Amino acid sequence: MKVILILFLVVFVFSGCNSNVNNKPTDINITELTTEINNHDFDTNELLIGDTIAGNCNKDCVSEFMTALNSLELENDFSTEFKEENCYNVTPESVSEVTDFKIFKFSDTCASFVFIDNEVFGICNSFGGYGFVNAVPWDYDNDGNIDLLVASSWGSGVHRSEISVFNTKTKEYIAIYNNMSSYINPCSDLFVADDFKVYSCNINGNNYANLSVTPYDFIGTVSNINGIPVFVSSNEKLSSFSYDNFLSIYKDDCGFVSSGFLNIEKVVVTNIDQVIELAEKECTVEYDGINVLYDSKNKIYCVSFGKEDYCGGNQDILINKDGVTQFIYYGE
Q1: Where are the alpha helices (DSSP H) in the chain?
Q2: pLDDT tens digits for 286-300?
Q3: Tell me: the pLDDT tens digits for 5-30?
Q4: How far apart are CA 233 and CA 322, in angstroms?
Q5: What is the spatial distance between Cα 164 and Cα 112, in angstroms, rounded to a whole number?
Q6: Cα 272–275–279 angle (5° rounding)?
Q7: 298 touches 244 (CB < 8 A)
């Protein structure tokens, strides 16, 4: 645990210059999914847009947290940077209602930590940004342990707002999405709501620990795809492909399958998550990446599964607008 915190603090100091967070987070091997928007893809909570949401900021249990923090034998004596008068308990009510976890943040440095069973862990990058902004409870991997879905920001020179999950079993955080993607304002900050919807937001506050946010644009949602947390965008359409061309190229190939499918009954398809779930029922290959294409002419989805570090062995599953599997193609 001490090694984990030491490593976190080293990253905390140097992350503005050397980061592994970019347009595609390296923490997880999965292609970012985008979705075509229609009237029923996302039930956006319009009441949230424009509302100012105050964070929870108090001094509860700060002394206990500081005792645990200062008791650690830290290299280079990083602990001298953390003063109790600048430390605040910023645990959201939605988290404290279902767990004993406590989140603490320093108003001067924005350093942010989670306090679990009297142990201290870094919850997000913070150098050069607001650090922790908010969090909601979410057992993203369905292992029975409540984890945390976190919105934060960091970066020196280049501002990065980030959505991540903190795994409360392994005590590490995994980046899901950041604002360096091309379809939102790269200077915007992010906020995650209790229903796992993600918003661009404006941030204000008396200090860096006592923040309030005003969501102004719904940009997507966070979903669990095969146990992997994935951000699904609402602002960009799926990449297109030609179903007719696909058939002309692969129909006579030995990897082309046209019968024996599981999805044979029509269903009402309302969002891209449902399309992926249907495709997963047919999938028979190992994968750590998912990509979805769409033919608007024929109303056909192509869901591709594969290993990102392996050439070949992918599987394309073509599903129509009624959720019925049309063909499966096994790539070499």
Answers
A1: 2-14, 62-70, 93-96, 243-250, 272-282
A2: 888 888 888 888 989
A3: 433 343 333 333 333 222 233 333 33
A4: 22
A5: 14
A6: 140
A7: yes
